[in-house]
Specification:
Number of strands of chain B: 11
Oligomer: heterodimer
Radius of gyration of chain A: 13 Å
Largest sheet of chain B: 7 strands, mixed
Number of helices of chain A: 0
Number of strands of chain A: 11
Radius of gyration of chain B: 13 Å
Strand content of chain B: over 45%
């Protein structure tokens, strides 16, 4: 079955620095991935997604990289701001699992002023 | 505003009580989901409804009973819950789960505490 995990439970970065949050997945048939941000007291908020036919996708200050060879994806946040402090989840999906998302455990990003 | 509204935001109930959680989505989506989020655990999918029909029941105990009267509304009826059921219950929706390649949009959850 699918499992999606995160390398670190907590990441602390200085304001203005770049942040990199990593995620590994187990099922090579996974073909769609999403990054979510969850702030305290709120539900997960969609940040960016990527399909398996791509290896990079950029949004506003965020970039997701997908390495299918090693089954790894990362979320890069440029010029990290205090408002980026939250828990970040990756989620993966493959059609053989009924199109259901499998979520990782989350990484807490803390931004130091 | 996420387009997915959950009520109540907080709920405290005893193990013998009966209560319901409500979710409404204003996005015109066809699929709705219930998730359980416990401390330090990944999100756990509970139920999926696609065009009002339940398509997934992820081995959820019968003390949780979902109801989906239409594509915009989803309920989770609770009865005889256990302390370990205390968690954040999240509702989500997506346009069309058939293709799968689309994000789910989440509400802000109901924080449930079982006494």
């Amino acid at each position: 079955g699918e499992s999606v995990g995160l390398h670190l439970p907590t990441l602390s970065v200085q304001e203005g620095d770049n942040s990199i949050i990593n995620c590994a997945y187990s099922n090579s048939a996974s073909d769609y991935f999403i990054w979510y941000k969850q702030e305290s007291g709120k539900g997960p908020q969609f940040i960016i997604d990527i399909r398996s036919n791509m290896d990079k996708r950029q949004g506003q200050r965020v970039t997701v990289l997908l390495n299918k060879t090693v089954k790894h994806l990362s979320l890069q946040i440029a010029a990290t701001q205090p408002g980026d402090s939250a828990v970040y989840f990756c989620a993966g999906l493959h059609h053989n699992a009924g199109n259901m998302l499998t979520f990782g455990g989350g990484t807490r990003l803390m931004v130091k002023p | 505003e996420t387009g997915v509204t959950q009520t109540p935001r907080h709920l405290v109930m005893g193990m013998t009580n009966k209560k319901s959680l409500k979710c409404e989505q204003h996005l015109g989506h066809n699929a709705m989901y219930w998730y359980k989020q416990s401390a330090k655990k990944p999100l756990e999918l509970m139920f999926v409804y696609n065009f009002k029909e339940q398509t997934e029941n992820n081995s959820v105990p019968s003390r949780f009973s979902p109801e989906c009267p239409n594509s915009s509304h989803l309920f989770l009826h609770l009865h005889t819950l256990q302390p370990e059921d205390s968690a954040l219950y999240l509702c989500a929706s997506s346009q069309d789960p058939g293709t799968g390649n689309q994000p789910q949009h989440f509400g802000d959850g109901t924080r449930l505490s079982i006494l």
